[in-house]
Each structure stands twice: as C-alpha cells, then as structure tokens.
Amino acid sequence: MTQHDLIVIGGGPGGYIAAIRAAQLGLNTACVEKESRLGGTCLRIGCIPSKALLESSEKFAEARQKLAEHGVKVGSVELDLATMLHRKEQVVEILCKGVDGLFRKHKITRCLGHARLVGGKVSVTDSGGQQELSAKHIIIAAGSKPATLPGIEFDGDRIGTSTEALSYSQVPERLIVIGGGYIGLELGSVWNRLGSKVTVLEFLDRILPGTDSELAGEALNLFKKQGIEFRLGSRVTAARFDKSRGVCVVEAEGAQPLECDRVLVAVGRMPATEDLGLETFGIKLDSKGRIPVDDHFRTSAEGVYAIGDCIPGPMLAHKAEDDGAACVEGIVTGYCHVDYNLVPAVIYTHPEIASVGKTEDQLRADGTPYRKGTFPFRANGRARTLADIDGKVKILAHQATDRVLGVHILGPRAGDVIAEAAAAMAFGASSEDIARTCHAHPTLAEAVKEAALAVDGRTISL
After folding, report:
1. Residue 128: what pLDDT?
2. Beta strands in 158-228 (DSSP E)
3. Which of the four CATH numbers 3.50.50.60, 3.30.420.360, 3.90.220.20, 3.40.50.11190 does domain 159-267 have?
C-alpha cells in the first residue's frame, strides 16, 4: 500500500488544481484519474474543444459573410471540416500535455484507473489490476456528466450528447438540439455556422434559464437572425433513430414528430458521484446526487473533502478550480473561502453573454431596491471598429448604498470584459467607483464605465 499526505480523485480543473496547490504547499500528493489524459471533461470534451470549434466556425462565417464590409474580398469559401476537427484535437492535446508537465514539475504521483473509497482507503482499478492508496486527506473531484431524458434512445452517434457533437464527421443537414441552455446554444451555433439547419427545442418559455431574462430575450432575437429556429415550451417525449429510413425522429408533446439527421441532447449536467464507494465512509448524497459539504469542503466523513461539479454550486470549471485551491489551503492553513455569488458565467455564442452577481429577476423576487444602468455597444467606438455592435452592458446597483449587485453583458468579447466587473464586486465597488475609474479609449470596457455612469443618469456617449 502506498502512503500519501493527500489523494485527489479526479484530474479535471478542480482535481488537478487541487493537486498542484497541495504540492506547492509541501504535501505528498497523488491524483487518480480514470482517463488516459488529464484535464477532465473541460479540457478533453467540454470547454476547450467547444471553444476551439466556436472560434473556427466563427472565422468561417466571417469569411463568408462579414469580411467584404472591411474591404477584404475573398473568392469561394470552402469548409475543410477534417482540418477544423484536427485543429480542435491539437489544441486539446497540447493543453492535456501541459497538465502532465505540471504534474511532473511538482512531483505529483499520477495514478491511472477508477478510484473507489474502500475501508478507509482508496482502491484504484485499471486494466492492469488493482492497487491501494492511503492518505490522511482525500479530495473527491469527480466532476459531472451529461444529464439525460426519459424516452431518449442514445446510440452514441446519431443521438448523443455534447461529446458526440464535438466530432461529427460531416455537417448534419438538419440538427435538432434538445435544450436551450449554454451547451446547446454554443454547439448549435457551431453547426449552424457550418451550414446545418438547427432547431432548438426548449421545455421552458425562454432560453438560458438562470441568466438575466432581458438579455436572454435580446439574445434569442439575435440567434433567430442567425438562422437558428427555436420552439419554446416544447416537452420532448421521445427521440430515436429509424434505421430503416436513416433519420432521427423526435417527438414533442402536442406537436408533429420532427425528422433530422442528428440529435444533440443538451439538458444540463449531473454530478458523477456513482460508484465512488461513498457509502463505505458513510457519505450520503443529497436529492440531486451531490455530495454535501461545509464551508471548508468537508464531507460528513473525517478527512474526506469534495469540490467542483459534484458538490452544490455553479457547475463551472473556474468555480471548480477555485474550490480546489481553497480546499487545499483550508487543509493546510485552516482558512479558505470561495464566494459563489461572484462566480462569473460566460456563454460563448456570438455575441457572447457574460454575467456576475444577481440578475434583475432575482433582485425583483428578493424585493431588493436597486438602480439600473445600461449602455449599448452600438454607441461604443471600439465595437464600431470591430463591426460588432449588437448587445449592451447592464449594471445593477443597490438603491441606497450604490454597491454593485450584478453586471450582465451581451456583446463582443463579453467573457473577457466581465472580469473587470467580477474584480470590482469582489472589492465591494459601487457603480460610482467604476464610473470614476479611467478606462482606456477606444476599448469595449468603456461600455462598462458608461453603464456605471448610466446608473446615476449621466451617460456621456449616448
């Protein structure tokens, strides 16, 4: 049996960050990961490959539709899907190897196999057999997996999840996306740009549940202009591949069956907490399959912690990263903290959608008095030079204290611009603080300053 100070179960963003931070703090650390490549869902089949395809498909769409207005004339634009997919895999491979290099640099023991808690220890099973590891501290960073729906007949090809949608060998003529959340809209956007007729079926009467409804509504109109069809209020009851006809058939309550070439099921994610042996440590899951923890990520079992997607909180890679570092620091120093109210969220469609803090819907529901300032990108100089003027910045500040409660952005590079808002809110900034901060010109970030000025009714450029 091999003894360590810390064993991390899972090599995704939460797990590998926890392992690296532990090694930095002097702990003898092992990380168990069942996949051959480190990086978890995010790096291998999630965040990174999807953003690679989003970037490539956007360049394809730009070459076909937008370069002419810049005075750039191109001839016939053709899609080389194989090269695009190969580039995506190269990006993933480079970053996975980077994590491997970090493990070697910090002398972290890498264990390949499936980990289970057994009799106070960690049993690791792979094709070569079984080994047992022991440590004073164990962190569970098992991540999450795609959620499913009853009546969906997954075949790993024609009807699948985001994993399959990252690697379609050809552009489907007709693609149905079940779910109007960020995963469905991002991958739906990719294949729409590449020539697929995309139809999104969403159970709710809106897209992007949880985001600010005003911006979600504006985004819906923009996506429709891009050619994506939406059927809201659609409860999907079945999806199957008809081999005799070579088509996928999707059935929704109260509607005629739809035929298509492929189906992407994107109805969210769920914790990957099964078959971890949690019961051997007396750890019970909550009603959503998550591992309950306290504010130091401690489970009900002594010396066992959990982080990332398998505990309550936003299912986002950067949240898992912060969990991992904080958890280890708590183990070593006794102090740790992650404020889930200040975890930014980004949807990498075009335009991008980014937010941090409370939505206007939440403030209304809570009865919190607030003031709102907005500023459209069409009035921003940098957005004009980019020929990317759709969307706006919205800032919500407390009516009495002016403290910023939420910032929501629909527009160019919103995922980068939101960082300013997250930092400002982390330090308890008021809208006046942001308005008084000098912003470089011309930049997209000036729209944030103008929105802050708008909270007090003194916008300059509009």
Report:
1. 76
2. 159-160, 174-178, 197-202
3. 3.50.50.60
